[in-house]
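Ticket #4471: structure output looks truncated?

Reporter: J.K.
Steps to reproduce: submitted the chain below (835 residues) through the standard prediction queue, then opened the result file.
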Amino acid sequence: MPTFHLRCNKSLHSLFKYRTIHMNSSLYRSLNSPSTPAFYKLQHSNIEDYYYSALHRCKTIKQLLGIHAQVNKIGVNQRISVAIKLVNKYAEYRNVENARLVFDRMSGNNACQVFEKMSEHNILLWNAMLAGYASHGLSEETITLYYQMQIEGMSPDEFTFSIVLKVCASPLVLQEGKKIHSHIVKKMGLESGVVVATGLVDMYVKCGSIEDAQQVFDKMPERNVVSWTAMLRGYVQNGQGIEALKMFNQMQLGEEIPNSFTTVNVLAACGQLGYLHQGKWIHAYVIRSGFESDCFIGPALINMYANCNSIFDGCQMFDKISKRDVFSWTSIIGACAQNGYAHEALANFKDMQLQSINPNSVTLLSVIMACTNIGNLTYGRCVHGYVLRRGFQADESVGNSVLTMYAKCHTIEVASTLFQKMARRNVVSWNAMITGYTQIGYHNDALTIFHQMVELENMKPDQVTVVSALSSCSHLGALQKGKWIHEYIIRSGFAIDVFIGAALIDMYAKCGSIDIAHQVFQKMCKKNVVVWSALIAGYGMHGHGHSALALFAEMKQLGTKPNHATFISILSACSHAGLVEEGWYCFHSMQQDYCIAPMMKHYACMVDLLGRAGHLDEAQDFIKRMPLEPDSSIWGALLAACKIHSNIVLGQHVAGHLLNLNPEDPGYYVLLSNIYAAAGKWENVERVRSLMKDSGLKKTPGCSVIEVKNNIHSFLTGDRSHPQSKKIYATLQSLAGQMEDLGYVPDTNVVLHDVDEEMKEHLLLYHSEKLAIAFGLISTCAGASIQIRKNLRVCSDCHTATKFISRIVRREIIVRDANRFHHFKDGLCSCGDYW
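Returned output as attached by the reporter:
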């Protein structure tokens, strides 16, 4: 035990002056000299009571240390009540080291030689030390002391178990909690006690082990309102709102009167389920029971109404709260932010500040969410400044929320700077950066961050991380990186649930491996509508319209109800395969069989289906009968059909609609120009191009990319910037000669420039997809398939040439253009020349 070199200062003497037990000055002087006879004449109870009272009254750690020094001097430190109070006080001032020193001295053998060791008193000392550790979250120290207690022959009581069970209320120490549960059952026989049993229920609930909690609860011969509330809260926290409501009914039938905490959890269950009617019934119960004035009830009611999409009722509830604290303000701000009323959330935040109510971290999370949802970066920066001034940046959730705001508001540079400066990064921080890069199209950067997270920082990703990374692979067509992520998922023990499964199916489909996508689908135990829709969309992309329809029929037969996205996928599949009758059937079934009102995307799919099939008049008539005002997606699909079928008159008419709706999109000008060029109307071509130039618009250049050995290589038409361009051009020239021998004739009609035929053939030979294919041939081993991705629709000449090349080199060549996949093999294409 260390010596405390402290004197009682004036404040300490003042504290002694107001002691509970009267002691005269001579007695006080004698206390400073424990060797005097006066000390031994004092009754021990008076000394204990005096110092116990002094410890109870002390307000600072300095006073506590001073009293402890006096206790050491006169030997009262060996009195059990004083030692317990010292332990409690040191724990209160977050000084568990000194608390443990007091405990060790008192629980040692030397102390027993001076005073009789009474087990009923000593258990209080052990419990005090256990509680001190537990109050500061020191679970390991608490559990170790608990086992030491048993080794030394001390018998735990109900309070002991309630302390230890609380520190076991975490999934990380659940196994220790189960051992203690076993000890309670086998040795102590205390499971039937309501305090210990409630502690067990609470522990299992907080560990997410609701089945174990239910077993303990069912075995309880006696239950109180705390027991019922703990079990009910467990159901709510584990997403089992219906079970929580059933338990609330059972509780009332058992004549156990719920308290305000019970009601808060029942309201949370109603909100979780979206049960507005039941929520209103609970609201009426709150009024009848007199709970409405409880400070937690108001926010709980607001949250319930907000989660039931009844924000108006939530606002009315807020208006009825006479005394609004930070919790009620936080509830209404969060309710508005989560229900799409971001402007109202920000207005409430301003009002809160005008009322001089300081926000907490949860308030700021909702405010930042509101700024993110409406992209209000100006207000967001102000909130960020407030966070910095008030020191909230140390809160991980707030820091991650600010990071997410900048990333989603397309200020990725600021987000990256904040990310680099973060002292601690958790999985949410990494997710914010990865999803931020993904959303703005910086997919290579997203995958770089993912690789850094997993390989360099050894941080385990979660479901959101994996899905975002797979999405970036899908957009890049980066099959090898996607396979690496899939392998990582398996190695790391991730469960391939419906979200990861759908992302894997989408990735493999968009990277050209529809067979592997089907394998992933087949291995999934649980499939929801998102998973089915992902594979249907994949089949559609690859032109397998009949396979998509068969899968669609199987999905319905097995009882999975299609949604809006499913019908977009199946209509798109019909469009790419030219299945007009089947497309009409699906379109009518959507409305008649499933009561799904078509959205603009469904109408656009039908226009595309009819237009590609050459039914231009029918497509026009369909547009006229639409209940919605056609947007650019509708007219764009029809204009593309006019290009395919060289309908100049209709193309001009449609282009007029498009240029009025979206005059800043260069794609529509290019389509119209191409229609004129294909018809040889060069004056009209020049007029359209001049109009583009005057508007400051530029044509998007054709670009093709290929992934070789995990590296992405990009090519533009006529590109000579690649280090191996000489070999690439030599390979193409060699292939051109072999293709001509087999009967290939360049389709110069696709060259949209007024130049001679020889120049047209020269331009055709060096289109971006041909350059990418040539690079793939010289960079991969013989027989290996080649996969490229192009940002525009593949032209008819490249389509024909690639068929010839696949025959010559005897390889499969997979091309993913802006619309779909083409699988070239042995001189044929999977699309059947329909795209």
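Triage note (M.O.): checked the attachment and the full token line is present. Residues 119-135 form the longest helix (17 residues).
Status: closed, working as intended.
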